[in-house]
Specification:
Layout: H1 32-63, H2 65-86, H3 92-105, E1 110-114, H4 122-129, E2 143-148, E3 151-155, H5 162-205, H6 223-267, H7 272-304, E4 312-315, H8 316-327, E5 334-338, E6 345-348, H9 350-367, E7 371-378, E8 382-389, H10 423-433, E9 437-442, E10 448-455
Parallel strand pairs: 5-7
Antiparallel strand pairs: 1-3, 2-3, 4-6, 7-8, 8-10, 9-10
Helix pairs in contact: 1-5, 6-7, 7-10, 9-10
Length: 461
């Protein structure tokens, strides 16, 4: 009896199920996280500024007290010398007029007084009597010194205009203001770029696989570039997996249906010859599926693996002649070799390249008429390996699809010509493993040339 054929199927998309869907909170340009970091940094900057002005500066003055003290005294020595020379030459009225003029035009107040009117501690009075300068209110810059017997001059304290004092304060605060403003702009810019990148990651995690992070001045160093490369790779893998799942379901449907049909027919017949015929057909279908699974596993392994090749330096001429001998029993067409001079060395993974050449020759053998030519060349930049045939060629516009898995020019699914549609896909993956590519062009024999190129200097070397 026949049972209903349950067709295999697969989902049309690879978006995560709702139960496993990752949902990230929406971020804003003026988010809290970066501004918390900025506020902490800015408060630390202000704290350091006040620590410097209130602790470091006084400590500095204390450590170098004597040097600074003497420097302040020397600042007023010129005025003392002038007053000392002028005092004996001036009358009392002239002297008072001179002091008034000085005080009216200078920020350094100057006055004189009898020594007995000076109210200072005894130790300072003794120094003054000895003719020594004193600054009893240091660090306040008030200077006392004799300019004549029993006459003391007081110089200072230096005065400041109120507007000048404000400007001086602003100058002291200017580094903090400038650094704070620059830091704010930097944090806002960083926050904006981080949020743009975060939103791109968020969208990608929700299944929008075409979303990419901003580039150019909006990029966050190389992070955006790395994310975009990862996203592109993942997007290609998702598309490839979807295509593979759909293709495998179609490829397996026919042999499974034939197996089910032959199994049911075996139950309906008692003829041993007929039963053996059905068993033979079932065995062929199982072999067919086994070959397809083997090809699929090879393709998947090459697609997902990073290039970790065991590279060897090979004499390409000798290698091609050996491959020709290996391939002769597998093809039905005459094959010739076009090689460079002996001693032309090529860096490659021999086993993978043997698989690549075998797939190219097998593909050419299905369509060629009389001739297959394999060849290679070496120059300073790249290696080349090609397979020519004299078949009908590949229709224009269809060559770009041939390296996708389960893609065949023969839509009849005849295994004698169409195969499984994995041979050229494996070729493309092996070329990628060597950081190279495979291209299709017209051969000089009128058919197709499959040309594989890969660089002499590979990135990991």
């Amino acid at each position: 009896m026949m049972t209903n054929d349950k067709s295999m199927h697969c989902n049309d998309s690879i978006t995560p199920p709702k139960s496993a869907k990752l949902t990230l909170s929406k971020s804003h340009v003026f988010g809290k996280t970066m501004f918390k970091q900025f506020i902490r940094m800015y408060l630390a900057l202000i704290a350091l500024f006040f620590i410097y002005t209130k602790v470091a500066e006084p400590l500095f003055y204390d450590l170098y007290h004597q040097e600074i003290y003497q420097d302040h005294i020397h600042d007023y020595e010129t005025i003392v010398i002038l007053l000392n020379k002028l005092y004996p030459t001036q009358t009392s009225e002239q002297w008072q007029k001179l002091l008034q003029d000085i005080n009216a035009t200078s920020n350094i107040p100057v006055k004189t007084m009898p020594l007995e009117q000076l109210n200072l501690p005894e130790k300072y009075l003794r120094q003054i009597n000895l003719g020594l300068p004193v600054m009893p209110f240091y660090p306040a810059d008030v200077h006392f010194q004799l300019i004549a017997p029993n006459v003391v001059t007081q110089i200072g304290p230096m005065g400041d205009n109120e507007s000048v004092a404000v400007i001086y304060l602003l100058l002291k605060l200017l580094p903090v203001i400038l650094f704070g403003g620059f830091s704010l702009l930097w944090v806002v810019s960083l926050q904006y770029r981080l949020v743009r990148l975060e939103n791109s990651v968020n969208s990608f995690s929700q299944g929008k696989f075409n979303v990419r992070a901003p580039s150019g001045i909006l990029a966050l160093g190389n992070l955006n570039l790395v994310f975009n490369q990862m996203a592109e790779r993942l997007n290609q893998l998702f598309k490839s997996k979807k295509h593979l799942i759909n293709a495998v379901s179609h490829e397996l449907r026919s042999p499974i249906s034939r197996l089910r049909f032959q199994l049911e027919m075996m139950g309906d017949t008692s003829d041993d010859n007929q039963r053996n015929l059905y068993l033979s057909g079932m065995n062929d279908d199982i072999d067919d599926m086994d070959k397809m699974v083997h090809e699929l596993l090879s393709y998947t392994k090459l697609e997902e693996a990073e290039p970790l090749l065991q590279l060897e330096i090979i004499d390409i001429s000798s290698w091609l002649y050996k491959q020709q001998q290996y391939l002769f029993p597998e093809i039905n067409t005459e094959m010739t070799v076009n090689t460079p001079a002996q001693g032309s060395l090529v860096t490659m993974e021999p086993q993978l390249m043997s698989r690549l050449l075998r797939n190219l020759v097998s593909n050419a053998d299905k369509y060629t008429q009389t001739t297959i030519v394999i060849g290679a060349s070496v120059d300073a930049l790249q290696y080349k390996l090609w397979v020519d045939d004299d078949g009908p060629g590949i229709p224009k516009g269809k060559d770009k699809y041939l390296f996708e898995a389960f893609t065949r020019l023969d839509t009849s699914r005849n295994k004698n010509t169409g195969g499984y549609g994995l041979g050229l896909a494996i070729v493309a993956q092996i070329a990628r493993q060597h950081y190279g590519s495979v291209n299709i062009s017209r051969s000089e024999y009128g058919g197709t040339r499959m040309l594989v190129t890969w660089p002499v200097k590979q990135p990991h070397e």
